[in-house]
Each structure stands twice: as C-alpha cells, then as structure tokens.
Specification:
By secondary structure, this protein is of the alpha+beta class. The protein is built from two helices and five strands. The structure holds zinc ion. The site of zinc ion (ZN) has 8 residues, from loops.
C-alpha cells in the first residue's frame, strides 16, 4: 500500500519548520518541508502565501505527529525563546542546546 503525504502544520518560519522536522524525525516520523526555498534567510519576514509547511510522509503517522506538534506548541508558549550565549542565535524555549552551534542554553 502506498503511503500518502498529508499536510501537518504551517510553520511561522523556516527555523520552526526545521525544528519540528527534526523533532518528529527523532520520534520516527518522516516529514517533508515545503516552501522552504521561497522563504528568505532566518529573521526575514516571509510572504504569507509562502510560509513553510510540514507534511508527514505517511498519513498513517498523522494523528501521532499532530499530537507531538500540539505538545511542542504548548511547551513553546510556556517558555520564552532564549538567545544562545555562543552565537547569539535565537532558540525556542523548548531547546536545551543551541540548534546552530550546540552551546548549552542554561539561562
Ligand atoms: Zn549557538
């Protein structure tokens, strides 16, 4: 039986899309990021119609992926983003190490 793609989430930016992709990948759920090349560098405001979208590769994983995304959103809301002391990159509050350089975010 062929697996079917299903749209999971529209991210607010490319960074969030990649974070969620890695997060779901760690849970064994394969995803694809669409619109990633239509968005400018991190920090620029993307056009509304070109926001990155996260799609699950197999819709059988959709329900579980959706639950993980909702849990991710709840954690994001409860913890403000943190700036990396090593490279000054903004990291979601859910992250304990910098996504970019690996510095521990212990603030
Ligand atoms: Zn860093």
């Amino acid at each position: 039986m062929r697996s079917r793609l299903k749209r999971l989430y529209t991210a607010s930016g490319l960074l969030e899309a990649y974070l969620l992709r890695d997060y779901l990948d760690a849970e064994g759920i394969g995803t694809l990021v669409f619109n990633e090349h239509s968005v400018g560098a991190v920090g620029e405001l993307p056009c509304n119609e070109a926001l990155p979208e996260l799609w699950v590769r197999d819709e059988a994983h959709y329900e579980r992926a959706r639950a993980l995304v909702l849990a991710y959103e709840r954690r994001s809301e409860s913890r403000a983003s943190r700036t990396c002391p090593g490279c000054a990159e903004a990291n979601p509050g859910t992250f304990d190490i910098c996504w970019r350089c690996g510095t521990i975010l212990d603030s």
